[in-house]
TrEMBL record, chains A, B:
SMART domains: HTH_ARSR (SM00418). NCBIfam families: HTH_metalloreg. Residues 18-113 form the HTH arsR-type domain. Keywords: DNA-binding, Transcription, Transcription regulation. This is Metalloregulator ArsR/SmtB family transcription factor. PANTHER family: ARSENICAL RESISTANCE OPERON REPRESSOR (PTHR33154:SF18), TRANSCRIPTIONAL REGULATOR, ARSR FAMILY (PTHR33154). It comes from the Bacteria. CDD domains: HTH_ARSR. The keyword Metal-binding does not apply. InterPro entries: ArsR-like_HTH, ArsR_HTH, HTH_ArsR_DNA-bd_dom, HTH_MetalResp_TranReg, WH-like_DNA-bd_sf, WH_DNA-bd_sf. The keyword Transcription applies. One of its GO terms (molecular function) is DNA binding.
Length: 113, 113
DNA sequence: TATCTATATTGATGCACATCTATGGGGCTC
DNA sequence: GAGCCCCATAGATGTGCATCAATATAGATA
């Protein structure tokens, strides 16, 4: 565990430029985060104890129609930033830490040589 | 330096949800990264030794018109992801590591309690 | 000054998307 | 089964934006 943390702390390797295909895939995720409402949705889920939020709580946090929030949730699901699970009448949303982590790593700038 | 590295390695604190105003500001940056061409531009600059790339080299990397690339560079500058410096006839672009770092940190998920 | 190169700006165009209202479907409770 | 609540889907609409051709600007050179 200690070693892993140290490894994670080491400077990231210099990367080759993204090819067009990979760039398109990654850009889809960033585009999903490029809407203020979706960014707030992710933020709400991230800061919620238990890591799980009911769709109704998300809808209630905005002055937008329920279908609009539902649309944004679908976009975030489609790019792999959220997962959902239905329990009885309610749908609960969670973050996908792997996706967040991948994006975060991509933004980590190689040491300015 | 050692201590700073350790601090940077500590798990990120749980965050309050972004308010609408901050979300709008951050979303602008993510939206800029949400275009495949702009993402590749950032990637090209990031992976370039010296951290500096001539606009002409960026334009040459795409099968897009020069004004289109110029437009994308302006977008990336406006959100603080790139800076530019003119030297003679050429304009050189650099990343802004602080902005990249801020975005990266925002995507670091708090430990799933 | 005239001109060539590198970059930025302008204006136009077609498509993508955020939002709404209306409706559909799934799952309770009476 | 009837009615109600939660969520998703469908269709319509106005705005935003990626792209281009044309043009303007800045700097070098002759």
């Amino acid at each position: 565990m200690e070693i892993l943390e140290i490894l994670e702390c080491s400077p990231p390797p210099a990367r080759e430029p993204l090819d067009a295909e990979r760039a398109a895939a990654v850009a889809r995720a960033f585009k999903a985060l490029g809407d203020p409402v979706r960014l707030q949705i992710v933020s709400i889920v991230a800061s919620h104890a238990g890591g799980e939020v009911c769709a109704c709580d998300i809808t209630g946090a905005f002055e937008l129609s329920q279908p609009t929030i539902s649309h944004h949730l679908k976009v975030l699901k489609d790019v792999g930033l959220l997962t959902s699970e239905r329990r009885a009448s309610w749908v609960y949303y969670r973050l996908v830490p792997e996706t967040l982590g991948d994006l975060s790593a991509l933004l980590t700038v190689p040491a300015t040589a």
